[in-house]
Amino acid sequence: IRCWSNIPFITMPLSRAHGKSFAHRSELKHAKRIVVKLGSAVVTRGDECGLALGRLASIVEQVSMLQNQGREMMIVTSGAVAFGKQRLRHEILLSQSVRQALHSGQSQLKDMAIPVLEARACAAAGQSGLMALYEAMFTQYSICAAQILVTNLDFHDEQKRRNLNGTLHELLRMNIVPIINTNDAVVPPPEPNSDLQGVNVISVKDNDSLAARLAVEMKTDLLIVLSDVEGLFDSPPGSDDAKLIDIFYPGDQQSVTFGTKSRVGMGGMEAKVKAALWALQGGTSVVIANGTHPKISGHVITDIVEGKKVGTFFSEVKPAGPTVEQQGEMARAGGRTLAALQPEQRAEIIYRLADLLTDQREEILLANKKDLEEAENKGRLALPLLKRLSLSTSKLNSLAIGLRQIAASSQDSVGRVIRRTRIAKDLDLEQVTVPIGVLLVIFESRPDCLPQVSALAIASGNGLLLKGGKEAAHSNQILHHLTQEALSIHGVKDAVQLVNTREEVEDLCRLDKLIDLIIPRGSSQLVRNIQKAAKGIPVMGHSEGICHVYVDTDASVEKVTRIIRDSKCEYPAACNALETLLIHRDLLRTPLFDQIIDMLRVEQVKIHAGPKFASYLTFSPSEVKSLRTEYGDLECCIEVVDSVQEAVEHIHKYGSSHTDVIITENEKTAEFFLQHVDSACVFWNASTRFSDGYRFGLGAEVGISTSRIHARGPVGIEGLLTTKWLLRGDNHVVSDFSEHGSMKYLHESLPLPQRNTN
After folding, report:
1. If you write DSSP's letter for every residue of 608-632 in order, what string do you get?
2. Residues 6+ apart with CB under 8 A from 626
3. DSSP per residue, 282-293
């Protein structure tokens, strides 16, 4: 165990045979030896005189953390010229001001001109100060740093190469971070066209080529090149159509247009790409990323090593299928074509998918059997998750019935007119329903979710990206294949995409240019993680399902135990299962209360006592740790309240706005509860388990939303639609409606076209 900033870090077992670069970002966490190249734009301030101290301190902190994890870190740094320029400017101004004051008077100080400073002189003046700064920063993390200055000649002389190699290996062995820079005080001017001449020769004319040469010489696992751009773009950054390239493959440079170099430094993006490809060919993985952005520079290096989608990753292994960005674009285009189909055509696709679920059930169940066997052999899934993973003939039949319900109810979902207004003569306005766009649905251990969500997306004309758990890979694959087969009957196969790449969920949540809505289907932890990771993309769902049942004084004895049993015991892992049972105080020590307790004991439900309930008991069950707990198992909390008002207040304070129930025969009390509880679903004398899209007659649901914007409760087709406004005029302009204009606003409501109810 090493220590960094007083926090212990367990040293990671990092080792691999060098010679082949990593194929995927997810493998970068195994990198043992890492070179971090800091470009001039990263190290220097915007005025190019002096260093960006805050940025540099953050980089040192990240390098120190990785060093203390057991990795071998090296830094190739720029900045000596900028640091020296700052010192020399200061000295020149100081000397000039003294001379001016002695000979010309104070009034001419403002007219002083600073001569152009020669770069080699600046480098000579700045090297010692730059290194002293690095040493001071690394000392804060109990790490020693050492400076090495090199020139191109040092790599051409075999003896010097061996000496350099030996020195670096010895420093790494002693847990010292080498800080390498070109010796700009003596380096000759760069020669034209001498850059990257073959596999065995590379001209060190800037720190990009130095870093690449060093990475290959030292058999480095990873080279991180930090600059002032996010990575490599398919056209110059800042242009309208520029897109960040996530993964760059050898040979792709022919399709890339390079812009100008950075504001400071010797190399531009073209030099970085050439250096990166040379290093890649030598067996070193490369990532080019932004080291200047204030929102990401504080963790850019550690994010890259963790395999997160940062910058451009250079890989020699090209995936067989499309990238997730390409899949997003395909889903967008396919969704627009899908939305343009006639309602009958979309319904036909869903009917076809329903038929395929039953016609191909043997193949589906065979694939599902593989998933179950693999999950059981690896022992990675708890029993409730195995139950969710399992498919059966009855499940597939129920799925098919639900899909046919969706098809039947979707006839006028897209393009339905919900408002018509006559603005003025011959100027009519309509508000119509339209698809949201591209949905990303992330689900765990539930392959039956795939056809349900696909059918809802098809019915609502949305493009769809699906990310299922790897535990259901075989099941998801065949169900997606059948979905695309159904879509093919009207040529919209691309509208539904299954993400099979090694994309992390957190990376998917950053694709705000491709995805319009994220819908998580899974554990509360999954939902919370996605809500935290989503960057500018709305998330529809609920992080917790803390559902309450309140038993009123006027509750029916016959109904109470039946509703509570169903709410808690029918499927305790469901998000709509009972978690807290509220009992009116007057029911304590009554036969009804005894029946409730006896039933829970028979069903082997573990009881946790709320604070007030515990105060009434001499020997109480274990007192609840928190009244805001989702157990997801045969456990529940019992708490006592004095009235229906107190029950409502308790639900508002400790609930999750999911589903809450009152059991009573008093209609006035029930209506008070229904009107005052602010949850997505509020029931009277019915089980919490009815909170479900299929049971609501929606055919299926993409999830249950507890948000207060857009959709709430079980979300079916309607929740996947938004609206747009259509205005039809005839040479209308706003100036005609001014005070002296010829037209007046009417704002008349017009009748809506009759809906298709068949």
Report:
1. EE-HHHHHT-SS-SPBPS-SS----
2. none
3. TT-EEEEEES--
Cα 343 from chain centroid (whole Å)? 33
Supply the pTM of this predicted model: 0.77
Gap between the Cα atoms of 523 and 600, Å rounded = 25
Q: Over the range 467-502, which residues count as b (16 or more CB within 10 Å of their CB) and which as e?
A: bbbebbbbbbbbbbebbbebbeebebbbbbbbbbbe
Please report, as a single letter, which amino acid is at residue 492: V
| Helix (H) / strand (E) containing 433 | strand 427-435
Length of the chain: 758
Neighbours of 5 (CB within 10 A): 12
Sign of CA dihedral 648, 654, 657, 661: negative
Angle between the 119-139 and 80-103 helix axes, to the nearest 10 degrees?
Answer: 120
Helix axes 473-487, 361-378, angle to 10 degrees: 160
List Cβ neighbours of 177 (8 Å cut-off, separation of 6 or more).
Answer: 63, 67, 73, 74, 75, 138, 143, 144, 145, 146, 171
Looking at residue 701, the DSSP 8-state letter turns out to be -
Residue type, 725: W
Residues 478 and 253: their CA atoms lie apart, in Å, by: 37
The residue type found at 745 is: Y
Element (H, E) at 247: strand 247-248
Mean pLDDT, residues 391-414 taken together = 91
Listed residue (437, 438, 388, 752) closest to 573, CA to CA = 388
Structural domains in the chain, CATH included, are: 23-92+117-186+203-312 (3.40.1160.10), 324-416+432-531 (3.40.605.10), 546-700 (3.40.309.10)
- Tell me the CB-side half-sphere exposure of residue 441, using CA atoms within 13 A: 30
Q: Which amino acid, one-letter code, is at 672?
A: F
Encoded tokens for 635: 């456990």
CB 637 within 8 A of CB 579: yes
Is the CB of residue 692 less than 8 Å from the CB of residue 701? yes
Please state, in angstroms and rounded to a whole number, the distance separating the CA atoms of residues 46 and 26: 34
What pLDDT, in 10s, does the model give residues 88-144?
877 777 776 665 655 655 555 455 555 667 777 887 887 888 888 999 999 999 999
User: What are the CA-CA distances from residue 674 to residues 26, 306, 645, 670 (Å)?
Assistant: 50, 49, 12, 6
Amino acid at 433: T
Helix (H) or strand (E) holding 544: none
The encoded tokens of residue 525 equal 């932890």
